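Molecular record:
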Amino acid sequence: MRELVRRIDAATPPGRDRAVDGLRALAILGVVLGHWLVTALVADSGTVRATSPLSYLPHLAPVSWLLQTLAVFFLAGGYVAARSRAAARADGTGYRRWLGARLVRLSRPVAAVAAVWAVAAGAMLAAGAGAGAVHTLLKLVLSPLWFLLVFAALTAVTPLVARLHPLWPLAVVLHVDLVRFGLGGPDVLGWVNVAAGWLVPYCLGALWARDGLPGRTTGWALVAVGSAATAGLVLVAGYPASMVGVPGAAVSNLNPPTLAAVTFGVAQCGAALLLIGPLRRVLRRPGAWAAVALVNLSAMTVFLWHQTAMMAVTALGLLADGPLPGLHTVPDGTGWIAARLAWLPLFAVALLVCWAAFRTYEQRRTRGGAGRVVRASRPVRDREARRA
């Protein structure tokens, strides 16, 4: 382990901002933990249905404020993509080659999870599983892919949006919600916010990479403005308090993103900027940096397989005599929450098994030098020269 830590630390380019990788790791782990805590699979009448403790315990909505961390991921993604594209341009790397190197890392793990679940769904149906139960499981596995599709699309248009001020997409979100909720416009209009809403933190990250941000002053300003706007939208304008989707709710802040979700994301981005300094100090330690680096190397694998890990433990639990609390029971009380917390270590073990089996699809090198531009925003040959 000491040798691994030493090698990771030695292989890290001196100019790499480790705090950005720390933010990305925190964002991914926040999403994973959030899904494990707010997703319940209830074994009922011979079938399985998905629900959420937030449907029964709405006062737990503040939990979603801590665990819905997608804005932080898009902030880090915009920062890294803007720096990477600038470095590639300076190095003479064309747009297609740069984009291919970035997207191939997303496509391989997605193809793996889609193939495995296509076979699994066919096997379950052939074995007599109900179509409703299979649909529930597939929805849990595949619904997070929207996030990767949006991220891939924003990555593709990085050269166009790298100089776009975050206030422009924020204005789009504001007007969409005014038409949708204030003027009774069609709900389908809300899907414009899927791009515009996540462009706000993405463009903020690109602005950070391009011009830098004045540190703590900007961070506190974003926290204050974003928090005040979100509080006003929830308390006065009637937006949902939960920042994740709640089954059966009339309006979801996340599906598609609402103005409240975007202003909340602005506050999260401000908090992330305030964390940069402390993260830089902590991640100077080789052991802490090695842990963050390993999470980032398998970020997409962890994201794509964490729901499968939860469902695998749930399915094995069905072999027990009767429903298991926190695993198959209705999430309608604090007892369920305590039981679910006790299951989290087993979910983590199952995810570790999935990671061991499928991480190679994310970490495999591309042929012909297509992956020469790395996420450190520097060409690989520069890194190799430093090693030499």
Summary: The first strand starts at residue 40 and ends at 44. The CA atoms of residues 321 and 328 lie 12 Å apart.
